[in-house]
């Protein structure tokens, strides 16, 4: 889907602001095809890399919206627009301790609950998937384990076993019917090793994929022009 087609597509876009359990403000954007009669949407949550924000997803949002999915892009704590604590002091990810990063999964759940609260006549998370990159991938696994209705699939870009206190093998082992796509860059031996290790804990299909890009995380989407379409096609096998 090229930029002009994306611009012409009729979309509803809503800013979402959720208060985390400690009062930190978590910001997100919910975007979905404009349809006054549609009540339930297949939804994809996008959780970005450490040090980035929700504006770095390249063509992936367009590919997903072209399939008539809703997308929820979340700025994780300390990133993008999610940088203010309960005292309205500005907080950067660069200065956060592991205890703050460990709140990421609960932050995501707070946003999901806020979407449900603000859209009582629409359903977004009965048929859903999640894409996460490095720390976003770890957050996706742990948050999914806490959800009553699990995602149909999880896509992990540059997965890690443990980062900033987020350890995922045990949670991954709880996701009985959730297939995983793990994407690593051509030269990213760390993520490939992590994928091999994590595959031992997966209870469903765990597929490793090597991108043509030599970079890692979200940068693969910019350097590998096929990757966004590959991810969207993978997800479409589950949100059908």
Description:
The longest helix has 15 residues, at 104-118. The chain has one domain: Alpha/Beta hydrolase fold, catalytic domain (Rossmann fold). Residues 1-6 have low confidence and may be disordered. The strands form 2 sheets. It has an 8-stranded mixed β-sheet, sandwiched between helices. A two-stranded antiparallel ribbon has the order 7-8. It is built from 9 helices and 10 strands. The protein has 240 residues and is of the alpha/beta class. A hairpin with a 5-residue loop joins strand 1 and strand 2.
Q: Strands across the major sheet, in which order?
A: 1-2-4-3-5-6-9-10
Question: How many individual β-strands?
Answer: 10
Highest CATH level, the class: Alpha Beta
Strand count, sense and closure of the main sheet? 8 strands, mixed
How much is the average pLDDT?
A: 95
User: What is the end-to-end distance?
Assistant: 19 Å
- Beta-strand content bin: 15-25%
Structural class from helices and strands?
alpha/beta
Low-confidence stretches: 1-6
The oligomeric status of these chains comes to single chain
User: SSE order, as H and E?
Assistant: HEEEHEHHEHEEEHEHEHH
CATH architectural grouping: 3-Layer(aba) Sandwich
**What do we call the CATH homologous superfamily?**
Alpha/Beta hydrolase fold, catalytic domain
